[in-house]
Design goal:
By secondary structure, this protein is mainly alpha-helical. The chain has 20 helices and no strands. The longest helix has 27 residues. The two termini are 39 Å apart.
Length: 401
């Protein structure tokens, strides 16, 4: 039922909402054209800033579009919705197997009718849903490892995280969680796990770097996301602090490294992580990056969004109320963004075609306006991050198991 509602909601959105899309989608169509002409998107375009997973998906979509005469846009949307279906299935399985099952209504609201996911899959059309899928699989394997302590399960976790890094390098921040039980596994198992973790991205990056070293160095290795549109960098931009974004951009990676090292130091003394500790630690790391990091993009929420319904089942009543209230604020923010921001598609302009509405969208799309519009959402994530740190299941405060 959940999957049927999920697919139906997205089909209705595609059928009845204006056919407007984010700039990212048009970048993907350009990549498909470059590939079709025999070019190298890492050399001939500046839009691919990650390992080649998404380029390979776009290559397949381009070929399928020519074979079937179906629009590449619709095939991209179908691919992302299919990834959502798989994600929802794993999320439901994770909840029903390891946690107190939530009601079907809660799961439908969180997974199937979530406006954030609908907008990101059907209007923005970004591939971060795949990163979130691999991260969810990684969580599933780690939680299973606490149950069976099987080397195969731990190796599966290494592979899932490796594929997540191959999709988008961000999941690398979760690698400290693999240190739990490192001293109790054989050297061979630990080495093989490291190979499974690093080989996918190493091979992928090696191939594209060999073919276009300058483009990969500039657009992938040198990519630092976009600062000044949200959070701390956005507020610095609003305040007119000269050089503030650059200064914070230099500091933020060191803050992330510090929290990763602290996590690794506490995790290494444990035989495995309890399910609640897996969730809270992953959320701390994943929420930290878009909230306090040097750059931001709306699809970043998909890195940890699938984990939230699972975590909700273990949250206290007070934290649940905070999560529901925060969800409403974040969802309203996303609806506003995709209605009014030209870079996101601004679907409101399709309903009200006037110079006044167009001008309003242009004003709201400015970096200072976006930062202010996102301020309530930023505060929600800051409060949620603090709540995660205070959670007693937090592995940073846990002792030996």
């Amino acid at each position: 039922m959940i999957l049927a509602v999920l697919v139906a909601a997205r089909l209705l959105f595609i059928a009845f909402m204006p056919q407007v899309y984010s700039k990212d989608l048009y970048a993907w169509l350009h990549v498909i054209d470059v590939l079709d002409a025999g070019g190298n998107p890492y050399k001939d375009t500046p839009v691919l800033n990650w390992p080649p997973f998404w380029m390979q998906v776009l290559f397949g979509i381009g070929k399928l579009a020519k074979l079937t005469s179906v629009s590449a846009i619709h095939l991209i949307q179908a691919t992302l919705v299919l990834a959502e279906v798989v994600t929802a299935t794993i999320c439901y399985t994770l909840i029903t197997r390891f946690f107190k099952a939530a009601s079907t209504g809660v799961l439908i609201a969180a997974l199937a009718l979530n406006p954030i996911s609908i907008l990101l899959s059907c209007q923005h059309c970004n591939f971060d849903v795949f990163a979130g899928l691999w991260i969810l699989l990684f969580a599933y394997c780690l939680i299973s490892y606490d149950e069976d302590h099987s080397a195969e399960t731990w190796l599966a976790a290494c592979f899932c995280l490796g594929m997540g890094i191959f999709t988008k390098t961000i999941p690398l921040i979760l690698s400290p969680l693999l240190l739990a039980g490192v001293g109790r596994r054989s050297i061979t198992t630990n080495i093989f796990g490291s190979v499974l973790l690093l080989t996918p991205v190493a091979i992928g990056m090696g191939v594209i770097y060999t073919l276009a070293p300058a483009g990969v160095s500039e657009h992938v290795l040198g990519y630092r996301s976009m600062g000044g549109w949200y959070g701390i960098t956005g507020l610095l931009n609003v305040a007119g602090v000269k050089g503030g974004n650059e200064a914070y951009g230099a500091i933020a990676p060191w803050l992330l490294l510090l929290i990763m090292l602290l996590c690794a130091w506490r995790v290494r003394i444990r035989a495995s992580l309890l399910p609640a500790q897996v969730l809270v630690t992953m959320l701390i790391l994943l929420v930290f990056l878009p909230t306090f990091g040097p750059g931001y993009s709306p699809p970043y929420i998909l890195w940890f969004l699938p984990l939230l319904p699972v975590y909700y089942t273990r949250a206290t009543p007070a934290l649940r109320r905070m999560m529901v209230a925060g969800y409403c604020i974040v969802a309203l923010t996303y609806i506003t963004e995709y209605a009014f921001f030209p870079s996101h598609g601004a679907f409101i302009k399709a309903f009200y075609r006037s110079d006044e509405v167009s001008h309003l969208c242009d004003v709201m799309g400015m970096s200072t306006s976006q930062s202010l519009i996102r301020l309530p959402m930023f505060l929600c994530f800051v409060m949620f991050f603090i709540a995660l740190l205070r959670n007693r299941g937090n592995v940073l405060a846990a002792g030996k198991k």
